[in-house]
Fold these 2 entries.
Entry 1:
Amino acid sequence: MNKKLYVKLAVTNIKNNSLMFLPYLFTCVVVIALFYTINSLVNDHALKTISGGNFTIDVMKFGSILFTVLSLFFLLYANSFIFKKRKKEIGLYNLLGLEKKHIRKLLILESSLLAFFSMLVGIAIGLVFNQVVGIMMSAMMKVPLTVSIISLSAIIKTVVTFMIVFMIIHVFNLKQIHSVRVIELMKGAQIGEREPKAKLFLAMLGSILLIAGYLLSFSVKDPKLDLAEIITAIVFVVAATYLLFIAVSIVLLKILRKKDGIYYNKSNFTLISTMLYRMKQNAVGLSNIAVLSTATLIVLTTTISLYLGVNTMLNNSFQFDVSITNPAENVSEQQQLQAFIDKTKARYDVEITKAASYQGGQFAADLTGDGKDDFFLILPLVDFNKLTNENISLASDEVMLLKDKESATLQSISLDNKSFQVKATVDELPIDTSLADNTDANWMYVIAPLTGEFAQIVDLENSLTMYQDFNVQGDTNAINDFSHAVSEKAQAIGNVDVEAKSIYKESLLVRFGGLLFLGIFISVVLFVETALMIFYKQISEGFDDRNRFAIMKKVGMSDKEILQTIKKQTLIMFFAPLTVALVHLGAGLPLVTKIIGIAAMDNWLVVVGSGIFAAIIFTVIYGVTYIFTEKNYKKIVKY
Amino acid sequence: MEILKVQNVKKVYQSRRGASVEALVDISFTVNKGEYIAIMGESGSGKSTLLNILASLDDVTEGEVKLEGVNYQNIENDQLAAFRRKHLGFVFQDFNLLDQFSLKDNIFLPLVLADVSLKEMNAKLKGLAGILGIEHILEKYPYEVSGGQQQRAAVARALITAPSLILADEPTGALDSRSAQELLDLFAKLHRAGQTIIMVTHSVHAASKAGRVLFIKDGKINSEIHKTNMDEDITQQIFEMQSAAVAKRSTV
């Protein structure tokens, strides 16, 4: 057969099936554009060199792999759908004398055309998108990224990755034409689908799983320890979602149908029966949409919360703007740095306030006798008395503790098999005690005489560290510049260590800024794919419903009534999964709060706010998809 | 008594390229109450167009159609469905029952749309189901029963609103000969009970059961056979009429 003819036929096929192919192409283009953008950004030199940048790069790389794999499944799904609709057409070719080998050739051409086009447009959009995202990311992370105009390595990576993706899809297509016979290909839509049976047991199981899943997620205390619980809760809720659509919906509809007063009513009669009839084919599709929507919402909420929660995280980890630590023997270096600070603070127009200077030591040993090592900081009694202007004395075997959940009830602690009496607990210390509620390990703060037995066992005297904690007041940028100057000076001097809140904030912003973008990217991909699924589901129904509505019209249903039925039907089919997803999100928020609590972000208000924000954005985009789909659906059923 | 009056109906379709196609050229006929009419014609003769116009699913280009004195063109668009429901009953070749409904609910559909109470619907169905012999399968779904049974349910759906006119489009087309005969017997029974029926068909046998047969050709009524009494066998006449039409064409 003539090669030109093949090309012509392939192009015509795509054009004639444009309603089917366009959303598919659109999804390919979006995924490719995002893939290129991410892979171009991870090559950014500026991103590689800033603190926290490598974390961001790793997360983004992982994310791009994740959504590529996810996309493969979706494209396969969409493709199988398109193929089903085209079976008749391919059967006709076969009937007209095209052999399977010719059809294969035609399909290869079609696939290549689609692949070529989507890669071309996808990368082109990616090039533009890359610039936009680069600028936005620079602003968000407060670090100027270089943002290359064109990244050859990213282009190669994108092309190779999606060549593989398209090849896999093509192989699936070939398998499909191989396994069907002409007569089956020629057959139209199946008729006479049986009404689904009410599965009372499954419906009950679904309800129980849902409640159990929710309760489990509420009961999680420490996300790191209760990982099994979290996974079980997720599995339960996902399973419940499927059962909800597969069984609960049918049971509910059947109950409604039994109620004559409700069922034999103009506005419900066709609606209830059609929903019941459709549920069988749609239940899985609707559940998929609900699960995907939930995933999108949770990803979006988590990343927004993390980004917005940076300040909470900072305040939880830093009680002072700058902390200087150095071994006691390096006191001269410390004095050198101190001199630098005193000299330069005027230059940056900042003031030092609320300073605390003390000595101490950090150790790890089992103090509580529970078999696990405890991290603890010893604050010598002299330093304590000096800082608090008190005059407390402790015996050699006595200590005091900073009061927290664990230490509040302790009568004594032990070290090296020796017991030490806890004379008192203090509510707060005028030093940085943020480690006390560190989520990784709760530090204990022990006040003991420098010459007492406790200090001697760990040889505190010879391993003393000096601490200078202080706050800085002034313009935010000035504080940041000042912090950098101090930190650089400390590095130049050596043996003194500086940690500054504003520097840490920068690295957090880089991390979570990157995370936020990745979250948005993944949400976009998930969303586009959800929309794709909705679209194909609704369109395929349209083809089936066309005949149904024609009959109803002849039987005496007015155009207005048909339109109303269509509207109600699409509305329910559309917003049922959204409602379920929103309920899941609401129920999942406490767990999300706890999980991001690991990152020292424990402000639940931020999480709830982010959740609401994500829900609004999602609902709006979802609504737009709905309008677009309904329009095409109406076109198909000719209304 | 005159129930349907079709006067100088012309239907012109505009093809996509702008050319116009005359599906119906000039059709006029009247139907009296209780009449049983068959319309015959080859594919493309315009009989489907005519049926759609009689069904008020399509507009006329010229002329008028009056059912019980009401001109279709004077019915408001949003009243059309109600009009169809009240005055017309449809029987189709492929039954057109909805798979989502049981036979009972399929039959109820036009009544539910007309806001009839369940009690009234049940009362109406009871008598009808007996006549049609479908009482035992009312709870079944269309795909669970035979074609003949589906068609009888479809007839019940057409009859339940007690319409002035039954429009049947190739009602025996998808039935085996036994079911087809049963359906024709049923139509004859309905006719005897005073039901007005218009049936479009290809089947000579089916047409021969009607009281009057109209032949449509090229958008016009070509000829007509009128029975003097319902027992008269007009099969031969129909054959002759058909072969005459073919002969005429071959000489042209």
Entry 2:
Amino acid sequence: MSSLVSVRALTRVFDVSKPWLNRVLERLPKRKLTAVSDVSFEVAENTVYALVGESGSGKSTIGKMVVGLLPPSDGIVEIEGVNLATETDAAKIDTVRSDIQMIFQDPYASLNPRWKVGNIIEEPAVANGDPTDGLAEKLLEQVGLSASDVDKFPHEFSGGQRQRICVARALASEPKLIVCDEPTSALDVSVQAQVLNLMSDLKDEFGLTYLFISHDLTVIQHMADRIGVLYLGRLVEEASPDALFDSPKHPYTQMLLEAAPRMDGFGREVDPPEGEIPDPINPPTGCAFHPRCPIAIERCARERPQLETLGGSRRVACFLAETESA
Amino acid sequence: MSQPVLSVRDLIVEIPTRNGLLKPVDGVSYDIAPGEILGVVGESGAGKSMTGNAVIGLLDRPARIASGEIYLGGERIDNLSLSQLRRYRGKQIGMVFQDPLTSLNPLLPIGDQLTETILEHLGVSSAEAEKRAIRALEEVGIPAAAERIGSYPHEFSGGMRQRVVIALALCAEPSLVIADEPTTALDVSVQAQITSLLKRLCRERGMAVMLVTHDMGVIAETADRVAVMYAGKLAELGDVRDVITTPRHPYTEGLMGSTPLASKGKSRLHQIPGNMPRLGNLPAGCAFHPRCPYTQEKCREEPGPRLKTCDGRAACWYPLAGAQAGQGVA
């Protein structure tokens, strides 16, 4: 299986300094926020790669860099072997760009309220110069809405229906890769089930590849073929869903899974995890998780662990993962 | 059983509109005992928050309590005047909202916001009020509370802010706390901290908690009993373990089935067909019948039974028995 997306040593630093005059007058140093730090992963064709992490872990920033909405500070994003940031052949850029689409979290904010649904859905095809006859009608039916909805406006639809419109729009340019940034977080569980089922069906029908970003472990477990766990902009563990949920190896993954509420956890008393995600402007030295880690050793504060392959296809960034499992 | 802290009887909330009368809460009855956490679940628009707001008297006009009774510690509170209600709000009933940033005043240090509530309701000196404010912050797990009391809300993280809101709700030692989606805006690890804090305080102080949320996992772990709402009505009310493992109402069954937690290992999630009907356009008969896999003639014609007049747990003409349950989720 070839990989459609290849992300190597991706880093993104935001400058969050005060304006320069304040800096000069108040003698403040520049402040840099490292949102994503040295992240590498591959997404195979026709699979779902999920990025999971808490707020501030950099998952949305990675998503934006993959679609090209943000330039990386360092590192490479290759889609179908083309690096959009450095490629100079305009024709190649155009083909690759039309293969990428995105679905956003908030279906209320991501549809233009003044446009008719038909125009919204056709827009990616229009931008590519593709024919649009009957396209919106066909796509609306494919996502479970009615062809007669083309002349309606977004406000006439419920949250779940709007997210279906977003899915239809994403499909209009016949993409290969869809980056889904928290596609169901704004929806109720029963509507979430409908949208997730729709996304699975479309994936099989059109041979799509999803980069699926979510903070919801249960959704991730259901959808993903491969999961990357992020903490403070770093990939700490990567594995298949079964391996990850049955035997998490990184202490952060273990903490996250332990803290997640369960349907059968009646009256469960969990020791809630200590502390919160540290400030990304001044991340801890060494392993970013070591101040909260129950098994941290002295080395963790000094040295940053690299992602190491462990037992087949799993990758873990922890010095103690191997000894823990042994 | 001791006297319930909160009793709601046949509560109906109405909103008059140009297109007729809407009933976002329609005939809801429940009790909450001291030290008990009642979870209220349902989809958006089911009337969960509206029920909580009616209890604390925060209904926005033109919504109004049309009929029904609300008793707090045996005293009727639904017909109080605004000035009488003020004595209850904050003192007897604490409220925790979803978004901690919008429920704190950004221009006041958190200490002032806490002492304001304490001075208003407890009638103590301001020095004593400050002491109590610090104690309240310590109790919800804010480190170095005495120093942080002069901090502004923006200086806290989301989880810490929600702790401040909980401290604020608890500082006048209410007997009932209404928590409306208290952890929805928070990360999983912080959510675990907040729910375990709520559970601990509820146990230690014997206060009653009404926990409104749409997260089944949170309900399962936190609540003692659960009320499932659909289109303004109670669909099911019972012990949390029973409701989740052996739902009697077809809607509860569908709702539980559609959470990804419940469909482990299945390639497709169970989905309830269709959408929740709009309040202005409720179907005749039982409001759930067009989406129900077990619909029969009676469901189409007669409105669903009220809890109490029927099987006792589920407001359904044909509640699911153990053996039948699960067939609709195939």
